[in-house]
Amino acid sequence: MGTFSRCYKFAPLLFSCAVNCLRPFNPRRSLGLTASRPKMANSVYTYVRDFESETTCLPNTWIVVRLDGQTFHKFADKHHFEKPNDARALGLAVAAARRVMRQHNDIVLAYGQSDEFSFVFRRSTTTFNRRAK
Fold first, then answer.
1. pLDDT 10s digits, 52-111
2. Pairing with 18, which of 26, 81, 101, 119 sits 20 to 30 Å away (CA)?
3. HEC sequence for the chain
């Protein structure tokens, strides 16, 4: 086991619950000797699979995927973005869209408005087996 693995093996347990921040430091608890391990993400987010669909988009058609920001106003307030357009927020959104486009070669166009971005996939794409959801 490498040094990094040894040092950070139990790090997730320190941050598994906000209550840990309120309690006095207890080495036994921080090493996981008395605390239960947090659940794996698979068990917590399995409900997402219910949204998946076998319905596919028609072949040889453009697919447009729109991503809408969730509670963007809270994020904007926390980072003190200027209204209506903050250069940092716009730069962040554009950088995120560019990264998505680099990861998915079938995206030919991306455009954003407010807290949402839309991505247009090629007509010939087979990404995600052309599933609708």
1. 667 888 889 999 999 988 888 898 899 998 888 889 989 999 999 999 999 999 999 999
2. 81
3. CCHHHHHHCCHHHHCCCCHHHHCCCCHHHHCCCCCCCCCCHHHHCHHHHHHCCCCECCCCCCEEEEEECCCHHHHHHHCCCCCCCCHHHHHHHHHHHHHHHHHCCCEEEEEEECCEEEEEECCCCCHHHHECC
Half-sphere exposure of 57 (CA within 13 A, CB side): 19
Contacts of 3 (CB under 8 A, 6+ apart): none
CA nearest neighbour of 105 among 125, 128, 129: 125
Read off the pTM. 0.58
Structural domain spans, the chain: 3-38, 54-130
- How confident is the model at residue 124, as a pLDDT? 93
